[in-house]
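Let's practice the habit of predicting before peeking. Look at the sequence and jot down your guess about where helices and strands might fall. Then scroll down.
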Amino acid sequence: MSNTQKKRLTLFLNPALIKHARAQAVIEDLTVTQLIENALIKYLPKETIIKKIKLD
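Done guessing? Here is the structure:
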């Protein structure tokens, strides 16, 4: 990602999933933020196009 600005996001996740993510972040020598960013980058399409439908 070329944009280095970060924004805060609050999520409500299953505690077991949080524990798993924290452990994996330690294994990969990443922060949980970096781990989640990497997962989202891999999951999301490169581009999202939203078209507005004009109703007549």
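How did you do? The mean pLDDT is 92.
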